[in-house]
Design brief:
The protein is 78% helix and 0% strand. It is built from six helices and no strands. With 184 residues, it is mainly alpha-helical.
Length: 184
């Protein structure tokens, strides 16, 4: 299994290309196209299989399942769009689980920063923090938060929405860039 300090060049190039396209598409159209995510999944299995054989196919499969699984739960909670879940499946198939997790953490941190800036710019910071508390409480009680408060539903026009694909893309750039710097 490869580590962030040893991302194969072919995988890094595909990740970065996919990140650029996904970010631009998500910023422009507020969606991530299926052709991109499917191409990413196929490239992940193909490249990992070529580079690492059967172990590479396992890396791609586990990465895809983890990436999709975590984001599918967020999709079910109406916290993310389906494109974000499919994009993270593609990232996982390319990156594998351990590298995917680093990209995920970077995307979450960057997304949170962007979300605070967006909430501040719209005068909704306190309301956003209130909604976060509400979401945590509802999840803690086993209830879907979007049912009783429409503004926490990413599908609602009342929600404070941002293109999360751009945050994922930024996370990819940071982790891939960091791996190149760490190589020396």
């Amino acid at each position: 299994m490869f580590t962030p300090t040893a991302i194969p060049l072919a995988i890094a190039v595909v990740l970065l290309a996919m990140a650029v396209i996904a970010a631009l598409w998500d910023l422009r159209y507020r969606r991530i196209p299926n052709w991109l995510t499917l191409s990413g999944v196929i490239a992940g299995f193909a490249l990992n299989g070529i580079l690492f054989g059967l172990e590479g196919l396992k890396i791609a499969g586990i990465g895809m399942l983890v990436g999709f699984g975590i984001y599918f739960v967020l999709f079910l909670l109406h916290a993310m769009g389906a494109g974000d879940a499919k994009f993270m499946a593609a990232v996982g198939s390319l990156a594998g689980m351990s590298l995917w997790f680093k990209i995920f953490l970077a995307a979450v941190i960057l997304g949170a920063i962007a979300g605070v800036i967006l909430a501040l710019s719209r005068g909704r910071l306190m309301r956003t923090f209130n909604n976060i508390g509400y979401i945590m409480s509802e999840i803690g009680h086993g209830r879907p938060p979007h049912v009783r408060r429409e503004e926490v539903d990413v599908k609602s026009e009342k929600a404070l929405r941002m293109p999360h694909g751009a945050a994922i893309a930024a996370g990819i750039f940071i982790i891939v860039g960091w791996s190149w710097v760490a190589r020396g």
